[in-house]
Design a protein that fits this description.
This protein is an all-alpha fold and 311 residues long. The protein has a domain at 82-236: MetI-like (MetI-like fold, Orthogonal Bundle). Helix content is 69%, strand content 0%. The relative contact order is 0.13.
Length: 311
């Protein structure tokens, strides 16, 4: 029979080694510093958007907001085409993410099946595109020749087949016990039924991971608009931000001229500056995608790590 543990022995066990204590303190300090470095730029931009525009333009706002107001966000809401750009970005993010996740999951599953015709050849062909591409000009010519230039679908179709996401999904699917798919096939399930009924419920962590990667990529992309879209109605929010940052001085005059006589006296105290416009539009553009991370965070680490170690 095992001997009982006295309170003194329990206290001794709980006592940590001084070296461990020092290492824990150092670890907390180092990671707190890195967390501060990551968070502070967003905090700095935000407090400048709600502080006095004059003080912000002179660089007086560093750690705490001064003369708090929210006029900048009201002014930015008056910027022409900003709402349309938000709708385009939201639509391309939602549609593009759904199609990319679906294609990555299905192709990852198919490439893990030994019965797929020429499986290794097609898989290597897809993976090769991660390392080799023709360049911007051939890509532009291709998009124009197939009729995607200056259309909404130029944001969606070129990103549907994403080799890196396919590799992630394939690795995850290979970690799923083969007995699950074998049992489904014995019950008469075909390839599509096995994929939707057996594989999809099991690989939700990697689907969430791919979804967040794809959503961030779609939301932050602006180069495709710059190269492949000339219609202002198809401009994305990121491209609009890019334009506004380059034209902040002229935009300052535009937002200062909006509003009515009743609010004129109040707006004079917080007249928009080039700095305030840049920072406010930046917060408006960045904030929506930041809200996505908490939703998928619990799947993120599991989705990346599972399947990485075999055996």
């Amino acid at each position: 029979m095992a001997a009982s543990v006295t309170p003194a022995q329990k206290k001794k066990r709980k006592k940590q080694d001084p070296v461990d204590v020092v290492m824990s303190v150092v670890t907390y300090i180092v990671y707190s510093f890195f967390a501060f470095v990551c968070v502070y730029p967003f905090y700095y931009i935000f407090i400048n958007t709600i502080s006095s525009n004059d003080l912000s333009a002179r660089g007086k706002v560093t750690f705490w907001p001064m003369e708090i107001h929210f006029t900048n966000y009201v002014n930015v809401s008056h910027i022409p085409s900003l709402l349309d750009a938000f709708r385009i970005s939201l639509a391309r993010t939602v549609i593009g993410t759904l199609l990319t996740v679906a294609a990555s999951a299905f192709l990852g599953y198919m490439f893990s099946r030994e019965t797929m015709w020429k499986r290794k050849f097609w898989y290597r062909l897809v993976v090769a595109t991660m390392y080799f591409n023709a360049g911007i000009i051939p890509f532009f010519i291709t998009m124009k020749n197939i009729g995607l230039y200056n259309t909404f679908w130029v944001y969606i179709l070129p990103t549907v087949v994403a080799p890196f996401y396919i590799v992630l999904c394939k690795t995850f699917v290979e970690s799923v016990p083969k007995e699950l798919t074998d049992a489904a096939e014995l019950d008469g399930a075909g390839t599509l039924r096995t994929f939707t009924s057996v594989i999809i419920p099991v690989i939700k962590p990697i689907l969430a991971t791919v979804a967040i990667f794809s959503a961030v990529g779609q939301w932050n992309s602006f180069q495709d608009t710059l190269l492949l879209v000339s219609d202002p109605k198809l401009s994305t929010l990121q491209f609009t931000l890019y334009q506004y940052i380059n034209q902040a001085s002229s935009l300052k005059a535009l937002v200062n001229s909006t509003g009515n006589a009743a609010s004129l006296a109040a707006s004079l105290a917080h007249a928009a500056t080039a700095t305030s416009i840049r920072m406010t539009v930046t917060i408006v553009v960045v904030a929506p995608i930041l809200l996505v991370y908490p939703i998928f965070q619990r799947y993120f680490v599991k989705g990346i790590m599972i399947g990485a170690v075999k055996g």
